[in-house]
């Protein structure tokens, strides 16, 4: 049994039905604001049109390249689509050296083009015409399917000469400078669009794509008449477009203040982007472990956890002095544990504190702390997912999901479904499927669909 001290410690993370419903109403209203030209400037969720207007049918055939850049490594993939919802994927991972992450943008794109050329040569396709889909997971304003202007670098990149420029053109120019391969950049997308496309390739009912990993974002299929930011010429023939919600920024207008805890405020204040991406800071892998660390410090100070351990104050000091020592993956490991063994929890306590065999009661408390933090994150993701499912025009909607938190946490899927069952309209049915390599296979599918509709 858990005692009242731990329940009180975690109370601010437990969302009531009223709070869930209220966050839902505010989120839905914010998406509507983002879609309208007259209110978009005030909206926190910017709802950028991606210019991806066709979903895969599963019958796509041919060889396509995909390039996936979103961190300190990037991948080049050769995706062979064989029809019948089938695909073969071969890929190579390349490093982005530290000096290229902060050096001139032209050097970065020359490096990428060189790796592309090596990959193509290795696969004996130097003379083939290869359409390429480019997953570029940085904030961009999309101007067309293959035109995306970088708003700002994130994740440790700071290459001058790229912000405000079209990254599709920069990649195209780097390929042209080499002159030794025939690669056409036909589409630029972010990882949520790739996730949606990858799932739609296997299940035609997929209309929403969500990433819950280091970051958190979503996209969904919307009717073109609802998307004011989409130019009129794209509304004549096609009736739908994928919208990139950029929902990580939800809450920047104060919408989440009534559910944010003191720990959320601390994390935001200490982050490199204070007052930005508040929804992301409550849901994504970059912050969940840190939330648990801050809660544990408070729990140790209040004698709510490890209360009989003579080294309790020492444990608090270790956590205070070592930011990010409690990793998000520890949450997944602890929640995977079974009573009374608690093998992972005991291993983590030994690793963090040098504590041999933590007692069962403390293991239960630690597990409860992790559950409250991850369940709140999953509940918030479910609120957003429900809003997007309810916005779509289809009665049956599949949500494609990916990201390390969703993929590796033992109960995240279960927590999400629990809340969605309360919020999705009764006349709709929904399901969630795990995406298979959205940023790779999904990018190739966007390239395939783009080539098909030319």
From TrEMBL:
<dbReference type="GO" id="GO:0005739">
    <property type="term" value="C:mitochondrion"/>
</dbReference>
<keyword id="KW-0418">Kinase</keyword>
<feature type="domain" description="Hexokinase C-terminal">
    <location>
        <begin position="207"/>
        <end position="449"/>
    </location>
</feature>
<dbReference type="InterPro" id="IPR043129">
    <property type="entry name" value="ATPase_NBD"/>
</dbReference>
<dbReference type="Pfam" id="PF03727">
    <property type="entry name" value="Hexokinase_2"/>
</dbReference>
<dbReference type="GO" id="GO:0008865">
    <property type="term" value="F:fructokinase activity"/>
</dbReference>
<dbReference type="GO" id="GO:0004340">
    <property type="term" value="F:glucokinase activity"/>
</dbReference>
<dbReference type="Pfam" id="PF00349">
    <property type="entry name" value="Hexokinase_1"/>
</dbReference>
<keyword id="KW-0808">Transferase</keyword>
<comment type="function">
    <text>Catalyzes the phosphorylation of various hexoses to hexose 6-phosphate.</text>
</comment>
<dbReference type="GO" id="GO:0006007">
    <property type="term" value="P:glucose catabolic process"/>
</dbReference>
<dbReference type="GO" id="GO:0047931">
    <property type="term" value="F:glucosamine kinase activity"/>
</dbReference>
<comment type="pathway">
    <text>Carbohydrate degradation; glycolysis; D-glyceraldehyde 3-phosphate and glycerone phosphate from D-glucose: step 1/4.</text>
</comment>
<dbReference type="InterPro" id="IPR022672">
    <property type="entry name" value="Hexokinase_N"/>
</dbReference>
<keyword id="KW-0547">Nucleotide-binding</keyword>
<keyword id="KW-0324">Glycolysis</keyword>
<protein>
    <recommendedName>
        <fullName>Phosphotransferase</fullName>
        <ecNumber>2.7.1.-</ecNumber>
    </recommendedName>
</protein>
<dbReference type="InterPro" id="IPR001312">
    <property type="entry name" value="Hexokinase"/>
</dbReference>
<dbReference type="GO" id="GO:0006096">
    <property type="term" value="P:glycolytic process"/>
</dbReference>
<comment type="similarity">
    <text>Belongs to the hexokinase family.</text>
</comment>
<comment type="pathway">
    <text>Carbohydrate metabolism; hexose metabolism.</text>
</comment>
<dbReference type="InterPro" id="IPR022673">
    <property type="entry name" value="Hexokinase_C"/>
</dbReference>
<dbReference type="GO" id="GO:0001678">
    <property type="term" value="P:intracellular glucose homeostasis"/>
</dbReference>
<dbReference type="GO" id="GO:0005524">
    <property type="term" value="F:ATP binding"/>
</dbReference>
<dbReference type="GO" id="GO:0019158">
    <property type="term" value="F:mannokinase activity"/>
</dbReference>
<dbReference type="GO" id="GO:0005829">
    <property type="term" value="C:cytosol"/>
</dbReference>
<feature type="domain" description="Hexokinase N-terminal">
    <location>
        <begin position="5"/>
        <end position="200"/>
    </location>
</feature>
<keyword id="KW-0067">ATP-binding</keyword>
<dbReference type="GO" id="GO:0005536">
    <property type="term" value="F:D-glucose binding"/>
</dbReference>
């Amino acid at each position: 049994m858990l005692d009242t001290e731990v329940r009180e410690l975690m109370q601010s993370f437990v969302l009531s039905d009223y709070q869930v419903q209220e966050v839902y109403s505010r989120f839905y209203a914010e998406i509507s604001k983002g879609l309208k030209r007259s209110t978009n400037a005030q909206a926190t969720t910017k709802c950028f049109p991606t210019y991806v207007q066709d979903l895969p049918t599963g019958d796509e055939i041919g060889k396509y390249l995909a390039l996936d850049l979103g961190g300190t490594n990037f991948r080049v993939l050769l995706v062979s689509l064989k029809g019948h919802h089938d695909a073969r994927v071969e890929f190579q991972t390349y490093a982005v050296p530290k000096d290229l992450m902060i050096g001139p943008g032209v050097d970065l794109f020359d490096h990428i083009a060189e790796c592309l050329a090596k990959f193509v040569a290795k696969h004996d396709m130097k003379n083939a015409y290869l359409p390429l889909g480019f997953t570029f997971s940085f904030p961009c304003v999309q101007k067309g399917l293959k035109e995306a202007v970088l708003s700002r670098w994130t994740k440790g990149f700071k290459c001058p000469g790229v912000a405000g420029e079209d990254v599709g053109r920069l990649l195209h120019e780097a390929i042209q400078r080499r002159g030794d391969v025939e690669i056409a950049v036909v589409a630029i997308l972010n990882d949520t669009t790739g996730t949606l496309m990858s799932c739609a390739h296997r299940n035609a009912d997929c209309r929403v794509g969500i990433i819950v990993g280091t970051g958190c974002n979503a996209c969904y299929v919307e009717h073109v008449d609802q998307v004011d930011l989409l130019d009129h010429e794209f509304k004549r023939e096609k009736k739908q477009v994928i919208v990139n919600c950029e929902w990580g920024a939800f809450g920047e207008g104060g919408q989440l203040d009534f559910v944010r805890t003191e720990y959320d405020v601390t994390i935001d204040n200490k982050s490199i982007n204070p007052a930005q991406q508040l929804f992301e800071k409550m849901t994504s892998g970059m912050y969940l472990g840190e939330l648990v660390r801050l809660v544990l410090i408070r729990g140790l100070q209040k004698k709510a956890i490890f209360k009989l351990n003579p080294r309790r104050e020492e444990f608090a000091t270790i956590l205070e002095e070592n930011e990010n020592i409690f990793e998000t993956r520890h949450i997944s490991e602890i929640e995977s544990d079974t009573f009374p063994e608690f093998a992972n929890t005991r291993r983590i306590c030994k690793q963090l504190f040098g504590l041999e065999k933590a007692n069962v009661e403390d293991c239960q408390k630690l597990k409860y702390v992790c559950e409250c933090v991850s369940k709140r994150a999953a509940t918030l993701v479910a609120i957003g997912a429900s809003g997007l499912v309810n916005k779509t025009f289809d009665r049956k909607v599949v949500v494609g999901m990916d990201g390390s938190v969703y993929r590796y946490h033992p109960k995240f899927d279960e927590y999400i479904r629990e809340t969605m069952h309360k919020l999705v309209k009764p006349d709709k049915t929904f399901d969630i499927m795990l995406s298979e390599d959205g940023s790779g296979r999904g990018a190739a599918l966007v390239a395939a669909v783009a080539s098909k509709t030319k």
